[in-house]
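Design a sequence for this backbone.
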C-alpha cells in the first residue's frame, strides 16, 4: 500500500445510514471528498433527494437508498439491491439513530422499544447484512456511531445511554468475530454536536453553559470535525485497528 494513498477512498463505495442530515450527511460528504462513491440512507425519500441535490450543487454525486434500518427484511433487500445495482459496499457507516428524553420513572415503554430498535437492533441488522457480502470478499470497513453516552450517563437519557453502551460492546464483539476476515470494525463516538437531534439543548443557554464548563475544548462540536476520524476508520490507514472506539468529544471523556 502506497503511503501517500493511506487515506484515499478512491474506488470504494460507502453506505451511510441516517445520512439525510446531521452527522451522517457530513460524514458522507467527507468520504466523498476523499474519493468514495456514497450511498445515502434514511427513511424519507424526499429528504434524501434534498440531500442529494445539496451535494450535487457542491459537485458531489450521491446515490440514495430509502429504507428503515429497524426493518430487517428491508435492510437485507436494500443491501442486496445496492450490491447488485451499484456494486460492492466497501464501507458501512452505521449512523442512523434517535434520542428521546423523559424522566426515567415515567419513561414510556413504546419509546424504550423505539430506542432499542433504532439505535441497537439496526446496527446489528445493517452490519450483518453488509458483512455477509464483505466476508466472501475478505475486505471491508464498518464504523458504528457510538456516543460519549457509551461511556458516561446523563440525567433523562438512560435508555439512550443503554443503547450506545451496547453499540460499543457490539462493535468490539463484531471485531472479535470478523477481524479474521480482514474486516475492520470500529466505533466513532461523538461528544455534543449541533444537529437537529440536539436542537432543544442548543437553544437552552443553561445547558450550553454547562457544556462549555464540562468540556475541555469549552464548546459544541461541529459536524465537519467528525470527518477526519471517519475517513481514518474507513481507509487503509486503519488496517490494523479493530474494535477501537475513537472519541471525538473535545476531551469530555478525558476529564471528570
Ligand atoms: P439527526 O437527528 O440530525 O439525524 C438522524 C438521521 O437518522 C436522519 O437522517 C434520519 O432520517 C435518520 N434515521 C432516523 N431513524 C431512522 C431509521 N429508522 N431508518 C433510517 N434512518 C433513520 O441526528 P444526528 O446527526 O445528531 O445523529 C446521528 C448519529 O450520531 C445518531 O446515531 C446519534 O445517536 C449519534 N450521536 C449524535 C450526537 C450529537 O451530538 N448530535 C452525539 C453522539 C452520538 P429520517 O428521519 O428521514 O429517517
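Sequence:
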Amino acid at each position: 500500500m502506497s503511503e501517500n494513498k493511506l487515506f484515499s477512498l478512491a474506488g470504494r463505495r460507502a453506505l451511510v445510514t441516517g445520512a439525510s442530515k446531521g452527522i451522517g450527511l457530513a460524514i458522507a460528504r467527507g468520504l466523498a471528498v476523499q474519493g468514495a462513491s456514497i450511498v445515502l440512507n434514511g427513511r424519507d425519500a424526499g429528504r434524501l433527494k434534498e440531500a442529494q441535490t445539496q451535494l450535487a450543487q457542491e459537485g458531489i454525486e450521491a446515490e440514495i437508498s430509502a429504507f428503515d434500518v429497524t426493518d430487517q427484511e428491508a435492510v437485507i433487500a436494500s443491501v442486496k439491491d445496492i450490491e447488485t445495482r451499484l456494486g460492492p459496499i466497501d464501507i458501512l457507516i452505521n449512523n442512523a439513530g434517535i434520542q428521546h428524553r423523559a424522566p426515567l420513572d415515567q419513561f414510556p415503554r413504546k419509546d424504550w422499544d423505539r430506542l432499542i430498535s433504532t439505535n441497537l437492533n439496526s446496527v446489528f441488522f445493517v452490519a450483518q447484512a453488509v458483512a455477509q457480502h464483505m466476508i466472501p470478499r475478505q475486505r471491508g470497513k464498518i464504523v458504528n456511531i457510538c456516543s460519549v453516552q457509551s461511556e458516561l450517563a446523563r440525567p433523562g437519557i438512560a435508555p439512550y445511554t443503554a443503547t450506545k453502551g451496547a453499540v460499543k460492546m457490539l462493535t468490539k464483539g463484531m471485531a472479535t468475530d470478523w477481524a479474521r476476515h480482514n474486516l475492520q470494525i470500529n466505533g466513532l463516538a461523538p461528544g455534543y454536536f449541533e444537529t437537529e437531534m440536539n436542537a432543544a439543548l442548543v437553544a437552552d443557554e443553561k445547558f450550553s453553559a454547562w457544556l462549555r464548563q464540562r468540556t475541555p475544548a469549552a464548546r459544541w462540536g461541529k459536524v465537519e470535525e467528525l470527518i477526519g476520524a471517519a475517513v481514518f476508520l474507513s481507509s487503509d490507514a486503519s488496517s490494523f485497528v479493530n474494535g477501537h472506539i475513537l472519541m471525538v468529544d473535545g476531551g469530555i471523556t478525558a476529564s471528570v
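The chain is about 45% helix and 15% strand.
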